[in-house]
Amino acid sequence: MNSPARIAVLASGRGSNLQCLLDGIGSGQLDARIVGVFSDKPGAAALDKVAPELRWASAPKDFDNREAFDQALADAVAACNPDWIICAGYMRILGTGFVERFNGRLINIHPSLLPLHKGLHTHARAIEAGDAEHGASVHFVVPELDAGAVLAQARVPVLPSDTPETLANRVLTVEHPLLLASVALLVTGRITEQDGEILCDGQSLLRPLRLDSAGVLVG
Ligand code: GAR
Fold first, then answer.
1. Is 111 helix (H, G, I), strand (E, B) or coil?
2. Could you tell me which of 15, 41, 35, 51 has the C-alpha nearest to residue 85?
3. Confidence class of residue 92 from pLDDT cuts 50, 70 and 90?
4. Which of 102, 136, 166, 189 has the fewest C-beta atoms lying within 10 Å of its C-beta?
5. Which tens digit of pLDDT belongs to each residue from 14-28?
């Protein structure tokens, strides 16, 4: 592990989670540097948050097939020699080849309390299901969608008046400190993942860490 840790970020959209990592680096909360931002959407606002030489973007439709896109993406990510690859609003499913190449250092933030509401439209689905709580999860990526071991979660209440938009905004306010605290912990090297099990200081993590009201991860 390098110090500062080398972090590659995959993002498809506005990049508020990327911004929170950049802010954490700037304030000294995260001992890392962003070594590349990678997108399947050449117009993604996330790309503008880093210097042009750190940006890589290609549209999947410009490739012969999904495997060819994934291969190009994986080669570009590998070329920046990252310690960690963080999916921060990356909205395209990563193929098995990509996931296996970066196994154990590929992380995603997902806007639900996994294993609830994998996939898309999580906020609408939480409301529809009548959930009292909703939130976000940081997990290791495995080939099956949103199914990897969960490192940490943050919770918010679901209010009777919520729309998917108001709920998404509330979740976002905890996503940012959750992602920052999770990545800050990962770069210490104290967390590892083996065969679907997360180890913290060599001990099995029996349940995800949770973000407390001070923005600290607790067991
Ligand atoms: C975030 O809410 C993130 O959890 C979600 O996309 C949003 C990206 O926002 N990710 C997924 O839904 C992945 N399945 P951002 O671009 O402002 O960071």
1. coil
2. 35
3. very high
4. 189
5. 999 999 999 999 999
Ligand 1 atom 3: residue of nearest CA: 89
Going by C-alpha positions, the residue among 158, 161, 160 that lies closest to residue 170 is: 158
**What residue owns the CA closest to ligand 1's atom 17?**
16
Phi, psi of 29 (to 5 degrees): -75, -20
Count of domains for the chain: 1
| E strand intervals along 55-200 | 55-57, 84-87, 106-110, 133-140, 150-157, 191-194, 197-200
Question: Which residue range is the domain that position 177 belongs to?
Answer: 5-218
Pick the closest to residue 167 from 128, 205, 207, 202 (CA basis). Answer: 128
In this structure, what is the dihedral angle of CA atoms 45, 49, 52, 56, given to the nearest 10 degrees?
Answer: -60
Q: Is the CB of 13 under 6 A from ligand 1?
A: yes
Question: Taking the model in full, what pTM does it have?
Answer: 0.98
Q: Rounded to an integer, what distance in angstroms lies between the CA atom of residue 21 and that of residue 30?
A: 7
Cα–Cα–Cα angle for 65, 121, 60, nearest 5°?
A: 15
Q: Is the CB of 123 under 6 A from ligand 1?
A: no
Mean pLDDT along residues 100-122: 97
Q: State whether the beta carbon of 164 lies less than 6 angstroms from ligand 1.
A: no
| pLDDT over threshold 90, residue 1 | no
Whichever domain contains 154, its CATH number is: 3.40.50.170
